[in-house]
Amino acid sequence: MNFADSEVVAAILGEAGYGLCTEPSEADFVLINTCAIRDNAEQRVRHRVRELRALQARRPQLRVGILGCMAERLQSRLMAEEDNLSFVCGPDAYRRLPALLHQVREGMKSAEVELSTTETYADIEPVRMDSNGITAYISIMRGCQNYCSYCVVPYTRGRERSRDPQTIVNEARTLFGKGYREVTLLGQNVNSYQWSVASGQCPVGFPELMERVAEIDPRLRVRFATSHPKDLSDRLLEVMARHGNICRCIHLPVQSGSNRMLQLMNRKYTVEWYLDRVEAIRRYLPDCSITTDVIAGFSGETLEDHQATLDLFRRVRYDYAFMFKYSEREGTYASRHLPDDIADEEKTRRLNEIIALQGQIALENNRKEVGREYEVLVEGESHRSKERLFGRNSQNKVLVFDRVPSTGGAAAEPGTYRRVRVADCTAATLLGELSD
Ligand code: 5AD
Ligand code: SF4
Fold first, then answer.
1. Using alpha carbons only, what angle is made at residue 283 by residues 277 and 288, rounded to the nearest 5 degrees?
2. Is 298 close to ligand 1, i.e. is its CB under 6 Å away?
């Protein structure tokens, strides 16, 4: 989401006459887009800000500012704490950046942190940064009001609001015309996307939006993130099943395998509900991969609760998981009412147990892939060798393969689809060979 937001910021500042550069040592402004979701994310940002002091000493015109969730959370307090910062700008205030930078150039310090109930940057065509020209993100909604008890996002990103579907479809179509072959539709909870048009017309929900984007061209792959399990509907799965270019991969954050924890987390579903959704996915889309987020050591988590999470991982057998230690965030319901009472070493121990189990499951899942053949969207050179390329299958698994098939035949080119047979694997990657 921050990556997509930075592309919106680049567009807004581009319009105002600013250009991007690649090295901080050439810049007049360094803008750091930030995440506030866990304390370690914030500490990394503070470290970066402090590192820039040396450069600022050599380059006095250089001004440093913070964008995004940390700006929203800490506001001008952040400038008081990090005195080499000149400005902070929250996620709904990016249109004010040109004016803000003007003030900063005049020597003022400034904070723009007002949240909005309507801002979606719908009319702004993002400037693609670090792009491979093949895959891109499209933000379809902003904000979140689920108020999971541990989470700071509703406070830093404000109320949920959906973007005009026509502007989303147009953006995807323009990208396809430029040669892009995959778009990922982004929102904190895409399943609650809702656009109400004039009375008499049908409102557009997420399944309808997906369908419209998928129908642009069968060669355009469509992905999405993130789904909240409470809102994952059969209707969406039906639409996915009907369109081969909607990718067979669903990110379904579970957070915990214990009903007691899920209730304290205010997730609004039970383990039974979650497993029913997993079953529905497997019914409609037998070849769909499922990935998740999980938190270890939330308030009051007992060893039984933790075991329940491990059990759930064994049952679902995720293809990938983002795994975190609970980090208490100021202002959340949990910080006000639920003690952060699991010792850090114990959180680490539980986290490592989940990581080890998930690593084993991912490897076992990948071993079953050996011998299968997939259509892969070729993305670029593998990190290790120029002779090898990498791409992803519909399930979002990375496949690495030789540029030229061993049987002769045409070399693969980034931005095209090729068939690849899996020959070997690690827990993270499938190793294959071109088979078409
Ligand atoms: N501590 C740890 N992890 C968190 N997440 C959100 N808030 C916290 C927190 N306070 C995780 C959740 C979410 C992912 C984006 O970050 O797992 O799905
Ligand atoms: Fe945070 Fe919950 Fe919203 Fe996700 S759904 S952003 S975890 S409040």
1. 80
2. no
- Cα 228 to chain center, whole Å? 13
Q: Is pLDDT of 200 > 70? A: no
Q: Which residue's alpha carbon is at the smallest distance from atom 13 of ligand 1? A: 293
Burial state string for 114-143 with b = 16 or more CB within 10 A and e = fewer than 16: ebbeebbbbebbbbbeeeeebbbbbbbbbb
Beta bridge partners, 296, equal 325
Give the separation between CA 333 and CA 260, rounded to whole angstroms.
16
Rg of the chain over Cα atoms, rounded to whole angstroms, equals 23
Instruction: Check pocket membership of 121 for ligand 1, CB cut-off 6 A.
Output: no
pLDDT digits (tens, 9 = 90+) for 352-389: 999 999 999 999 999 999 999 999 999 999 988 889 99
Q: How many CA atoms lie within 13 A of 183 on its CB side?
A: 29
Q: What is the pTM of this model?
A: 0.96
Residues with CB under 6 A from ligand 2: 144, 146-148, 151, 153-154, 188-189, 228
- Dihedral angle over CA of 276, 281, 282, 284, nearest 10: 120
Q: Which domains does the chain have, with CATH numbers?
A: 2-112 (3.40.50.12160), 135-367 (3.80.30.20), 373-434 (2.40.50.140)
Span 403-416, pLDDT tens digits? 999 888 899 999 99
Cα maximum dimension of the chain: 65
* 35 pocket-lining for ligand 1 (C-beta < 6 Å): no
